[in-house]
């Protein structure tokens, strides 16, 4: 598999809150890297051969690139909005393609079956019509007008509600979810999935949230989101094929898969194929 098109992208490699001089040894697209706090107080990331990688710090995470990024990290304006709680959820290692991890995050239909009585429940299994587009100006995949009944849409929610969603894919291994904010109607809660590709079939997933919730203890917010993703992990680690198919004929989509179809088309357009399967085997 070629990885050239993805080399110049930004990837999460650690939490700012856990950054120290001792460093964190990890990997990025098959290359061993070390993330540490430099003598000047700034984050440093070095590759296996000792070369310094491009670094930026945003959304509570250290980001690095194995190549030469030609653009800044994507913007999440809500991260700077007064009154929001910014939640570093931590990291979950998953034995799956980093692209599979993002695609699963975009999937609505699995809510009643994988996240039963939290994000979905039978008999409320129908995925209503929604809009999907590749926004050319931003070069991002967006899904809007997504609505789904949820018994507990957020830790702050009391009782079931019909939740409205928007999905945004600004980078090949990152996705942003905007969803109904129970305590503050008219605003959106922001839940993100930042994925670090360790290898084509292994990744570290770093969820992060920007919420309007002044009541729930931080530990409970983190535990709630970790519970959701751990439920997803068993599904992800058993998907066949392990890599994400980009050939439209390899898997048969349904109406609920419109976002996945657009995401795969966008990946193929840009040659984002690290963690993908291009032809049937």
TrEMBL record:
It holds the Pfam family VanA_C. InterPro entries: Cholesterol_7-desaturase, VanA_C_cat. Its EC number is 1.14.13.-. The keyword Oxidoreductase applies. The keyword Chloroplast does not apply. Gene3D superfamilies: Naphthalene 1,2-dioxygenase Alpha Subunit, Chain A, domain 1. Keywords: Dioxygenase, Oxidoreductase. It comes from the Bacteria. PANTHER family: 3-KETOSTEROID-9-ALPHA-MONOOXYGENASE, OXYGENASE COMPONENT, IRON-SULFUR DOMAIN CONTAINING PROTEIN. This is Aromatic ring-hydroxylating dioxygenase subunit alpha. It comes from Mesorhizobium captivum. The lineage of its organism: Bacteria, Pseudomonadati, Pseudomonadota, Alphaproteobacteria, Hyphomicrobiales.
